[in-house]
């Protein structure tokens, strides 16, 4: 079932183009500087982020830090844009050689390791770029941690806007979209 999901995700990424309505929704959630950063992303990355934003908004989410993180969590991939085939290599590597892909993701993004470095280091790059564009410290933290080991079950006594709860929601939707 996971292979079918990944194949569908790949196909959707190839033809992804954000709608004008989705771009307008994003612009209501972001400052002009953050929106400029969002618009610099590849269309497939924009569509992925907008799918997360739309799910959050459909759930009634109003926390601007989470909405910002949803839209900008992958913006660091802009530093070294990936081709579709490189995304396939990353997914296969993570599926079959997870420890190796983590190791290959260290260092400089050059040569055959380039795609693994982008996959591994883009959360830090995304957080840095969002911070420079004026994102709040909470949004920056969520962005930088979005690929951390998922929180399996957030503590129920925490408030809905607790960072761990926000991170959990971002991770769940990121992995589903």
Protein model, in words:
This protein is an all-alpha fold. The protein has one domain (2-176). 67% of the residues lie in helices and 0% in strands. The chain contains ten helices and no strands. It has helices at residues 2-15, 20-29, 32-39, 43-58, 64-72, 84-96, 98-104, 114-132, 137-145, 163-176. The longest helix is centred in the C-terminal third of the chain and has 19 residues, at 114-132. The chain is globular, with a radius of gyration of 16 Å.
What would the keywords be for this entry?
mainly alpha
Number of helices: 10
Shape: globular
What structural class should be given to the helix and strand makeup? Answer: mainly alpha
The residue ranges in which pLDDT falls below 50 over 5 or more consecutive positions are none
């Amino acid at each position: 079932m996971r292979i079918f999901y990944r194949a569908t995700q790949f196909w959707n990424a190839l033809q992804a183009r954000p709608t004008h309505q989705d771009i307008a929704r994003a612009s209501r959630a972001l400052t002009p500087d953050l929106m400029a950063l969002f618009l610099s992303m590849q269309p497939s990355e924009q569509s992925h982020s907008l799918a997360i934003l739309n799910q959050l908004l459909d759930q009634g989410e109003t926390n601007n830090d989470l909405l910002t993180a949803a839209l900008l969590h992958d913006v660091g991939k802009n530093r070294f844009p990936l081709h579709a085939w490189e995304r396939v290599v990353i997914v296969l590597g993570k599926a079959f050689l997870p420890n190796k892909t983590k190791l290959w993701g260290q260092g400089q993004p050059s040569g055959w390791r380039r795609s693994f470095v982008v996959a591994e280091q883009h959360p830090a790059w995304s957080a840095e770029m969002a911070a420079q564009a004026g994102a709040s410290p909470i949004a920056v933290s969520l962005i930088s941690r979005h690929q951390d080991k998922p929180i399996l079950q957030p503590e129920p006594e925490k408030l809905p806007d607790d960072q761990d709860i926000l991170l959990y929601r971002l991770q769940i939707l990121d992995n589903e979209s």
